[in-house]
Amino acid sequence: MKKVSLLYRDSDTKENLPARELSEAIYNLNIDRMVESACKNKTCAQYFLSVLGRNAKSEKTAVYRREILKDFLKNPGLLSELMQVFRSYDNLQSETEEMTKEVFRYGMPANETGMLDCIYEQLYINAHFARNVIAYFSEIEGVFARYEVKSEGLTGMKNFCISVKESKCIDEIEKAAERFKSESVESYSFTVKCQLDKTMSASKSVIADIAEAGKGGKKKLFAVFKKKEALPTEVDIGNSAVDSVCKTTVSALSELSSLFSDIAGGIYSAFFGIGKELSFYFSAIEIASYLEKGGMNYCFPTVLEKEEDILYASSVYDILLLTEGKNKKTIVTNSVDISGSGLMITGDNNCGKTSFLRAVGTAVIFAQSGLFVAADDMTVSIREGIFTHFSSAEKDFSDANNVAGRFESEVIDIAKIVDNLTPYSLVLLNETFQTTAYREGAEGMKEILDILPEIKVKYIFVTHIKAMLTDFKPVGVNVLKAEKYNLVRF
Fold first, then answer.
1. How far apart are CA 240 and CA 238, in angstroms?
2. What pLDDT is attached to residue 215?
3. Measured between alpha carbons, how far is 363 from 29 in angstroms, rounded to an integer?
4. pLDDT tens profile 362-373
5. Distance of CA 276 to CAs 17, 93, 403, Å?
6. Which of 2.10.70.10, 3.40.190.150, 3.40.190.170, 3.40.50.300 would CATH assign to domain 297-489?
7. Given the DSSP bridges, would you call strands 426-430 and 386-390 parallel, antiparallel or unpaired?
8. Interhelix angle for 59-74 vs 274-293, to 10°?
9. Could you give the CA distance from residue 390 to residue 437 in angstroms, rounded to a whole number?
10. Mean pLDDT over residues 67-80, rounded?
11. What predicted TM-score, i.e. pTM, was given to this entire model?
């Protein structure tokens, strides 16, 4: 049965592979600090960050998540109810496996009678597992019945539950599982079909009929449990030795137990993991609430395919500033439009350059992950990769003799970024090569920045190096100057 996902439109996508450079970007942009401040549930927050760290590169994925998040924002009770259901649902199979282990806790029974008791107990557990799985699908469908959803993901999930509920095959499984409500094998009498070998010993056996002990009338098991091939010989072994009867019945019940386990497990796997995926949306809503409490706006961006090569946002701001006690009155917003090859930001210390870089980087990662962004409006195309180098995030070198070592370290870091760049990536650089001689640093950085447009890579470079604005100004770059947190054209 196909697995359902609320994070990926195609559950077989390869987008869930971690991207090392994106994890570094999350650290350099302080997104982890912001999320930890905004989200009270730390487990959900960690999962949220792990999803951000998987480089989703599809416009369809971003839209898929965005519409689901809109449904949850509109119906907060829906998310709460689903999370409550899936807390227990996701543990159902592991709990069943633990119960099965307990059956054979002391090893295999020494005689066939004991073995029969254990195998029946295993069958009872697996039948109970099947009933529970089917019951959960009905419960989930009942939750959806109380809310109006429009997103493809939640609508598909709702319809899947309805199809399971209405399936004749599922109904047969449920009815078959219902027959094994008693915890004792003595509560039933079984008719077993056996296949005999050349010595007239039973080589294969299956349950053909079952009836409650002491009651007339046999109840045939449903067709899905029947073997397609006809068994060549059918014999009545009811009067045989007890051990032979038990051995044959054990074999038949064991196969029936496995069928319950396999069929229920297949159905169960369709929704397994949804509970974790819901925690992604739970953290997103916590962050939205965090922005609202600070009086800040947010919007759902327009996300385009990478070939559009657009990065525009109006009134974008750094969410991390809210953790520093700032609010709508004290947070300055700016606009960004990288229509050319890139942007270069200059200005004095503590005037908002790094904050602007964080704001843009965070907005791009959020947009690409199917989330809202901290801006009034945004249009962005998918970035194949998001690479960052923050000098302030590097090891501090207070000793002047270590300046050369730091420069060499930064050269190695930048070389790794360049080696891994792909078209339609985004590079964010903060004070790179700042510790070396200004002219030497400017010359090296110009060579790097001139290469980026040639491979369709956009960049934002924050720098104090004045030579970058004159003798070593990169080709096609737009320069902005930060003045009291406002960016103005240089």
1. 6
2. 60
3. 11
4. 999 999 999 999
5. 16, 15, 45
6. 3.40.50.300
7. parallel
8. 70
9. 18
10. 96
11. 0.85
Question: DSSP letters along 110-126, please?
Answer: SSHHHHHHHHHHHHHHH
pLDDT tens by residue, 124-157: 999 999 999 999 999 999 999 999 999 999 999 9
Chain-centroid distance of CA 469 in Å reads: 43
Q: What is the pLDDT of residues 272-321, one digit of tens each?
A: 999 999 999 999 999 999 999 999 999 999 999 999 999 999 999 999 99
What is the rounded distance in angstroms from the CA atom of residue 115 to the CA atom of residue 120?
8
Please report, in angstroms and rounded to a whole number, the separation of the first and last CA atoms in the chain: 59
- Would you say the C-alpha torsion 200, 203, 206, 211 has a positive or negative sign? positive
- Residues of the chain with pLDDT > 70: what percent? 86
Q: Which residue, 134, 133, 139, 129, is CA-closest to 85?
A: 139
Q: Distance between CA 250 and CA 332 in Å, rounded?
A: 74
Does an H or E element contain 72, and which? Answer: helix 59-74
> Domain coordinates of the chain in residue numbers?
297-489
Instruction: Quote the CA–CA distance of 270 and 285 in Å, as a whole number.
Output: 25
Are the beta carbons of 344 and 333 closer than 8 angstroms?
A: no
Residue in the block written with tokens 């210390």: 349
pLDDT for residue 23 is more than 60: yes
Greater confidence (216 vs 336) lies with: 336
Residue 304 phi, psi dihedral angles, 5° rounding:
-115, 165
Q: How many CB atoms sit inside 10 A of residue 146's CB?
A: 10
Q: What is the DSSP letter of 173?
A: H
pLDDT level of residue 199 (50, 70, 90 thresholds): low
